[in-house]
Amino acid sequence: MAQEQNAPSYSEQEQIRREKLSALRESGHDPYVLTKVDVNADSAKIRADYDAYEGKDVTLAGRIMARNIMGKASFARLQDARGTMQFYIRRDDVGEENYAAFKKMDIGDVVSVSGKVFKTKTGEISVHTEELTLLAKCLKPLPEKFHGLTDTDLRYRQRYLDMVVNPEVKDTFRKRSQIITALRTFLESRGFMEVETPVLHTQAGGAAARPFITHHNTLDIDMYLRIALELHLKRLIVGGFDRVYEIGRVFRNEGMDTKHNPEFTMLELYQAFTDFHGMMDITEDMFRYVARAVNGSATVQYGDVLIDLEKPFARLSMVEAVKKYSGVDFDEIHTLEEARAIADERKIHYEKRHQKGDILNLFFDEYVEENLVQPTFIYGHPVEISPLAKKMPNDPAYTERFEVFILGREHGNAFSELNDPIDQRQRFEAQAALKAQGDEEAHGVDEDFLNALEIGMPPTGGLGVGVDRLVMLLTATPNIRDVLLFPTMKPLE
């Protein structure tokens, strides 16, 4: 009885398709047996170089997406990885049995088509079929073509179906691959070496973020999925590499929206003997290079806004930016009490643990960020929110740190890296105190990293870039889930 209750239920169309599969197997034509197809062409290559392919024998493979059956001859459309191609099939060419088998195939079935390339009377490039082989049976009906697959939740959950029904979706992910390749090409041309560092950490660190916690059974210790790449990469600078980078997944146990996913791709790079000004130059050059390499232009049409990566990026200190957009000059605010008073006046919510620098950052979030549409470097972050950056020599309340903003969102974060182990210990201890007070984004003292700094780290500039957001920018995509093949989703009940 329990087995019957748990048995899957099928729609009428699904049941018909399963019956067709059973009939194929009973007749000795199991479509899942064949393991290899000698594909020697694709739809894009044939269309791009028809003269070279005309009259030639080709084998394509893909999915049947449309059919027009007309008695003894039919037309159908094959969708492969690069596009679509019409094929023409006649009973007299393939035989009565094979033609009958074709007529029983369904939209979505995976097939190989072998034959000669030609043009129909209407001028459409096609394949005159000589052999048609079923490679995999599609047991579920595809969404009806006219309406397509428009349910965004289903598109994200079943990206494979999304790409079948909306093949243009694949263009975004091809471009994503090109962007990552261009990032590597740029960095390697500058002498950077790509490395890999651990994903599992014994201590979270390198960013203000809430980590995912797991447990290692053999060692019997809790471990953390990395929230940043920073601290291990800086250990490599200590060890003697002068230019390193990593492109990898990081994980943050935080909220989800159009700009945030709990796992995302980060690029971090570190260069010895430079500072945050050097990182500004690299950031600007890199964004410009990647845009040109992928889009052919350093301008991006993003909705109604033309983003210009060609011009020099604007540069503002955080204090200047807050003054410009809120009218509040934090250079004239000297005490925590004064900062709290102006926050109360402007109805900016702060917590008891927040210092003057934290309140400046809250003003920035409230008044400034959304206005930074064209590429802008915001530098001079308060020391309270920058535990890994060097202090400004002329004003130790602020740090040699910048963030780059485009379209009102952060696209990169960089420092003149703190290499003073005494100062770093004090900041780690301040973070540990915040953690003890309940700040889930603060972290403890990383003794091994401090040990590395005590060995001696040269002056170093470091930069982190959110790859997903860069892809969103260069593909003019407003939602991060549209640039992630498999975004995080809550399981269905």
Question: Strand pairing plus helix content: what structural class?
Answer: alpha+beta
Strand order within the widest beta sheet: 6-10-11-20-19-18-15-14
Unreliable spans: none
- Termini gap: 23 Å
Number of domains: 2
Helix content: 25-40%
Gyration radius (Cα, Å) is 29 Å
Query: CATH first level of the largest domain: which class?
Result: Alpha Beta
Please tally the helical runs, counting DSSP H or I stretches of 4 or more residues: 17
Write a compact overview of the structure shown.
The chain is an alpha+beta fold and about 500 residues long. The protein is built from 17 helices and 20 strands.
Give the topology, please:
Blueprint: H1 2-6, H2 12-26, H3 43-48, H4 50-53, E1 57-70, E2 73-80, E3 83-90, H5 91-94, H6 96-104, E4 110-119, E5 125-136, H7 152-157, H8 159-165, H9 169-189, E6 193-194, E7 200-201, E8 213-216, E9 221-225, H10 230-239, E10 243-251, E11 263-272, H11 276-295, E12 299-302, E13 305-308, E14 314-317, H12 318-326, H13 336-345, H14 356-368, E15 376-379, E16 391-392, E17 395-399, E18 401-406, E19 409-416, H15 421-436, H16 447-455, E20 460-466, H17 467-474
Parallel strand pairs: 3-5, 6-10, 14-15
Antiparallel strand pairs: 1-2, 1-4, 2-3, 4-5, 7-9, 8-9, 10-11, 11-20, 12-13, 15-18, 16-17, 18-19, 19-20
Describe this structure in words.
With 493 residues, the protein is an alpha+beta fold. The chain has two domains: 2-142, Beta Barrel (OB fold (Dihydrolipoamide Acetyltransferase, E2P)); 169-313 and 375-483, Bira Bifunctional Protein, Domain 2 (BirA Bifunctional Protein, domain 2, 2-Layer Sandwich), CATH 3.30.930. It is 35% helix and 26% strand. It has 17 helices and 20 strands. An eight-stranded mixed β-sheet has the order 6-10-11-20-19-18-15-14, sandwiched between helices. It has a five-stranded mixed beta barrel with strand order 1-2-3-5-4. Strands 7-9-8 form a three-stranded antiparallel β-sheet, with no helix packed on it. Strand 18 (401-406) and strand 19 form a beta hairpin. The longest helix is centred in the middle third of the chain and has 21 residues, at 169-189. It is elongated and about 90 Å long.
